[in-house]
Amino acid sequence: MLADFNLKEQFKVWKRAGKPIPKEYFDLGIAYWLISPDEKEYTPEYISRTFLKKEWKNSEKEIKALQVFAEKKLKEYKLEKLFWDLEMPLVDILANIESTGIQLDKNYLRSYDKELEKKLGQLTKSIYKIAGETFNINSPKQLGMVLFQKLKIDEKGVKKTRAGSISTDINTLETIRERHPIVKHVLEYRELFKLQSTYVRPLQEAADPKNRVHTHYIQTGAATGRLSSQDPNLQNIPIGTEWATKLRNAFVAEKGYQLAAFDYSQIELRVLASLSEDPKMVAAFKKGLDIHKLTAANVNNVPLEKVTPEMRRLAKTLNFGVVYGMGAFAFAKTSGLKVAEARKFIEEYFNDFQKIKIWQEMVKAQARTYGYVTNANGRRRFMLAAVSRNSWEAAEAERAAINMPVQGLAADIIKMAMIAIAKELKQCGWWQKEVRMLLTIHDELLFEIKESIIKEAAPIIRRLMESAYRLKVPVRVSEKIGSDWGSLKEIHV
What is the tally of structural domains in the chain? Predict the structure, then answer.
């Protein structure tokens, strides 16, 4: 059996050389990540020093010693099935995804870059005119002086940095948006500057000779099991605004193909309903109700038809906040409510969804009693700080404990789906040829599918995603298809 670190990179080299991938392999970094998912790194040097108390000398003897130790711990922590059935098959799948890459329209990107440059110039002139002076808009210190010293914008509700100066981060600018006309220009400038400097220009440099961009997925990047993406990070491509959509338009399907996105609908809330077995939430998902609207109706004690868009917005914030163990102060900050109002909302929420609160308390008790929590697949995360005498540390650990079983299972579900899809597509002879898995973005999978088989392939992918793991509530996946990432349309084929 092949045992080593960072096998994904080795596999990519072998694939290019036409060398076969072994049927059984043991990625040591991933094994130690499962065993201790909150380590700073999973390099051979760090792992050897931390677990074997030895300096790494890169010998076969050391590899074997690390493998034996890992196998013992995987068995002790009941992580063998997760390692062999989920994380190891994923290594080869991610190697395929990274090798394939996603197509860029570089001509479009160059044109978009010029459009951004022009708009940034216009915004800069507008900001200088309103400010009555020129300054470095990208300098937080200079911007803060203009906003709060020269223009005297009200500082109410604005946080300060550790150095004591007033923050000019996005949250601060959103807080003061309506307090002065300059702020909306600064916010738009920030968005466009970030698009240009973080995405538009680096993406052009990152593209290969065939104009495809290849991200690198990190399996060991999050203690909950979530995958992360880097060099470039394609999980953080902006969404929602007109300018962000224009950026997504640059990611295109190869000629003769279409892009198809498959997105799990509210998967974390469905997992929460399934784990807590809360009757109201379970019933809502089984009936196909709008869960945020139902929550709003319950919390505000009004009929469903009386729920306003603002009520639903607050309920949505609360629903997802509960998944992360959000308290009254965090909810108040996120929702714009006063702390007392936020606390009342949370109390009403748990009064209506009582089994969620019972489940959360059970998870926190597990963290305090055993020093770790697990998800339904046995994935574990240590929570030793849950018994800290420091109340803030203990509260943070309890919030992480509440979130881990939910987010950890949601992460496992999409990985299970990826493995099931790869297996079926290989049997069809379509894998990474007629149907290419391009990206995994949180709860979404993006494919490039040959136009001639899209009506046949899309339902297979959707079926496999919806059946990857059986929850106590229905799992739903939405499909969007189009020639580029920015203009995908929801279609049921």
Answer: 4
pLDDT digits (tens, 9 = 90+) for 197-214: 999 999 999 999 999 999
> CB under 8 Å to 415, separation ≥6 — which residues?
86, 87, 90, 225, 227
Q: Which two tokens stand for residue 450?
A: 């040959």
pTM > 0.85 = yes
Q: What is the pLDDT of residue 492?
A: 59
Where are the strands (E) in 154-277, listed by range?
Answer: 212-213, 216-218, 228-230, 251-252, 257-264
Q: What is the CATH classification number for the domain harbouring 297?
A: 1.10.150.20
What are the counts of helices (DSSP H) followed by strands (DSSP E) for the chain? 21, 14
Q: Is residue 75 part of a domain?
A: yes
Tokens of 91: 């290594």
Angular region, 489: left φ>0, alpha ψ -120 to 50, beta rest: beta
Cα–Cα distance for residue pair 425/277, rounded to 1 Å: 34
d(CA 271, CA 407): 8
Contacts of 448 (CB under 8 A, 6+ apart): 100, 102, 103, 253, 254, 257, 258, 259, 260, 435, 436, 438
> How confident is the model over 153-176, as pLDDT tens digits?
888 777 777 666 788 888 888 888
Half-sphere exposure of 467 (CA within 13 A, CB side): 8
- Whether 335 maps to a domain, the answer reads yes
